[in-house]
Design brief:
The protein contains 23 helices and 25 strands. Strands 10-9-8-7-13-25 form a 6-stranded antiparallel sheet. A 5-stranded parallel sheet has the order 15-20-14-21-24, with helices on both faces. It has 635 residues and is an alpha+beta fold. Bound molecules: adenosine-5'-triphosphate.
Length: 635
Amino acid sequence: IQSDKGADPLDKKNMKPSTATNPENGFSQILRLVLRELNLFYSRDVNGVCLLYDLLHSPWLRALLKVYDCLQEFKEKKLVPATTHAQALSCEVVGILRETPKSPEIQELKQILQDPHFKALLSAHDTVAQKDFEPLLPPLPDNIPESEEAMRIVCLVKNQQPLGATIKRHEMTGDILVARVIHGGLAERSGLLYAGDKLVEVNGVSVEGLDPEQVIHILAMSRGTIMFKVVPVSAPPVNSQKMVYVRAMMEYWPQEDPTIPCMDAGLPFQKGDILQIVDQNDTLWWQARKISDLGTCAGLIPSNHLLKRKQREFWWSQPYQPHTGLQSTISISMEEDDMKIDEKCVEADEETFESEELSEDKEEFVGSGQKFFIAGFRRSMRLCRRKSHLGPLRAGLCGAGGPRSALGAPYEEVVRFQRRPSDRHRLVVLVGPSGVGVNELRRQLIELNPKHFQSAVPHTTRSKKSYEMDGREYHYVSKETFESLVYSHRMLEYGEYKGHLYGTSVDAVQTVLDEGKICVMDLEPQGIQVARTQELKPYVIFIKPSNMSCMKQSRKNAKIITDYFVDMKFKDEDLQEMEDLAQKMEAQFRQFFDHVIVNDNLQDACAQLLSAVRKAQEEPQWVPATWVSLDTASG
Ligand SMILES: Nc1ncnc2c1ncn2[C@@H]1O[C@H](COP(=O)(O)OP(=O)(O)OP(=O)(O)O)[C@@H](O)[C@H]1O
């Protein structure tokens, strides 16, 4: 840097006098000169100079050096405080001012001197001036016997909050040890108690020979300050793990778990809760917080390993049922519900339905003087979806979403993901019990802006009608082609209706996304897991019915699609069935729902849907970590 090579003579000329005349002008001045010289190399693109220049040019470095210079200057001046008792002086002045005749200036001065911030400032000043930084410790006693263990005396003020530590008895020695210190709890915040510390006394009572329960009793009875005498652990554990966030894929209730080391320290959670794992040192019990409650102290949750073990034990203890697992009861009862619908079915002339489809389903509408066609609302596709649990091919899909999920990971690692404007949109998936209004909301959203929102065109093996167009109502394919799409995992959902196969392919969704649009589709909840891929990054919205009395009111004129009636009004039992199914869906699949909308007032629900879809595309959301790391790896 000091080399003259290639330096502009003019700059050199400018620089020299300042270096010569101000050699002791501090680091800031030196930095300025170095930067000026570097500037010359910068323009010639000398290797590495840009980096160095940018570093030295950074505002933080300049600020730091300025602070350094100031400190140096004051150090040399050897400043001494004018008074070491500014607080007392201020009190004295306030006393005098009280006896002085009132004037606005005197009032103002009195106010300033009595301001709590100013008092705190003077107190800090006096502490520094008197160099009163450390608490005064009593001198160490002489002649401590060599054999005596070093003890630590810890005083904690309980203040109606739990101590935030658990204890256990050492199996061999019988010593009472601190088993774990809960993150964010009183003990951890004190920085004085560590896992492994041996308790000797609690409030002056020796714990030797006591059971952990007896010690806990002493602690529970203590009010205010608790004093511990402990033998510190030789090497306090260091938590070097990085913070991990996970989505709970199952629920956990510590009160119902007899194996938890300390029930009160347990953290209950529901499916779908996002947890911040703060400690994984123990292979069986982790410490975590809910992200909705980060201010509180952490709680104990079973580790991934422990939950999987519990799942396996439970799974093996169940009688064998094909395609069912831990959470199978709900799947079964949902299938039973569908059975009921089937029993009610009356075979009718398919043509009647097909010909009525076009007008009844309003697939065409006129918008801004142009005719649009909205695909994906055909009656046969919708009825097929409802019956899809029973189709023979569906078994493959149930296999993916059923038992596998039951024995799947209890926690899913997640990260905050924000879609970049240049990225493809995230797929929007609507889920809800039949009749709740999934299709109505989807249709309304698309009609709001058909250039922005679109459905995917489904596939079918049935033959094309005279008024249909391939790729508009459906992609018409042979049974072989359809099945090959299924077996190559290119179908998000599929099923059979009246002897024909119907389904929506990944490619059909991608076609919409590739056009820069937002693809909005409805799915049976069993299909969500299939759609949850890095390429589609689905945002799942659960459409939920409101309570029965509201539904009776709002659905007075609503119509359901059935196998045998075109326009059938909702009966009370339909609404009850919808509510029951919604509860079952939520209980089984809520971990996959990114957002929930109660569809009471249609306009409100539509506005909520629009806002949720906007947030999904534009604001950061929790997504599986694999979606993002794969992105990075590929990109
Ligand atoms: N909030 C609402 N208020 C009043 N009527 C509604 C509301 N939401 C939907 N509807 C009406 O309820 C009926 C059923 O809605 P929709 O066809 O969207 O159900 P769905 O959830 O798609 O059911 P399926 O999956 O069985 O097709 C329609 O007549 C629709 O207009």
